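Structure catalogue
Derive tokens from sequence
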Amino acid sequence: MANPIPITDFNDPALDVFARLSEAQLLNREHPEEGLFIAESPRVIGRALDAGLTPVSFLAEDKHVEGEAREILARCGDIPVYTAPFHVLTQLTGFQLTRGMLCAMGRPPLPPVEAVCAQARRVAVLEDVMNPTNVGAIFRSAAALNMDALLLTPGCSDPLYRRAIRVSMGTVFQLPWTFLEPGWPEQLHALGFRTAAMALREDSLSIRDPRLRAEEKLAVVLGTEGDGLAPATIAACDYTVRIPMSHGVDSLNVAAASAVAFFQLGEP
């Protein structure tokens, strides 16, 4: 296990990744092979390691190095582990939001849609879901409620943004996912999926309709916060599906709607 490196200089460039680089800078669109993301807490970091992702450096409370974080650090070989007491670390932007430990990790290459869907019978498609909290919550529901994979349009928030990872409790590392290209409804049809657009329309099927669960391969399509799915997307899908509401409520938050949809339509 690497030896801890006590922090003596808050301006040390080695700490930029944790405290000063934006999500866009970490993503590094010009050189995606050099992109990074930040995972928080031993549990989430452990799930990332289980998925085969590569740690680059750690930032941790000194008391955790021989405590809660010890097992994680023992898995990571000789990489830098920057440490300080909690009251010192809170001077670094954002550290007070963590559970004692941050890990900078290399971004994995995105797999093709065909690989993500190869063994899947139930997939979720997110169209322009821009809030990382919602993306993280949808991943957590998908993992818990029998979905096999997630596909996102380019307008979605990145699942490896720090908040999305935190809200997902690391399930972004447990389910296969990737970004889609234009023409994705036709691509899913070619892969054998029927598509179900979740939309608030009077001519929609009830989510309880037995035809939906009977589909061998089904893609559940969820739209952006507020506006929902684009009309063209709804038109391109095989089914339009509505969650019945009561007490005059007209809609659910997309993350809540996803949990209902996955529970009802996911594999038993």
